[in-house]
Amino acid sequence: MPLVRIDALRADPARLDALGRAVHEALVETMGFPPDDRFQILTSHDGRTGDLRFDDYLGVHRDEGIVYVAITLRAGRPAERKRALYRRIAELAHAYAGTEPRNVFVCLTENTSADWSLGEGVAQYAPGPAGG
């Protein structure tokens, strides 16, 4: 169950949708998430009231096509699957949204089962006394 946040600069609704599809499909393909396990926050920043900042860190030249993808998920996946995820997100973001792979910045944050409530005020992955 990943929670995905995608932030892009001056992205119209079609581009945000394409980026959301790219990330979701990559998660399904590389991490084995079910196709109906989609929880995304898609945000476009206009450059005036909201902005994205970036530099050419580690020799990667970024420009205003930058997309930040923050994924929170339960811990336990091996590094090779994470590398496959990063690669696939970049490939699909390019194919679906025209985003250059150099502009796809991904950060995974891992947590435990008890860190999730999927609704109803219950920790569905880590139930405890009185329903969790």
UniProtKB/TrEMBL annotation:
<dbReference type="InterPro" id="IPR014347">
    <property type="entry name" value="Tautomerase/MIF_sf"/>
</dbReference>
<dbReference type="InterPro" id="IPR037479">
    <property type="entry name" value="Tauto_MSAD"/>
</dbReference>
<protein>
    <submittedName>
        <fullName>Tautomerase family protein</fullName>
    </submittedName>
</protein>
<dbReference type="Pfam" id="PF14552">
    <property type="entry name" value="Tautomerase_2"/>
</dbReference>
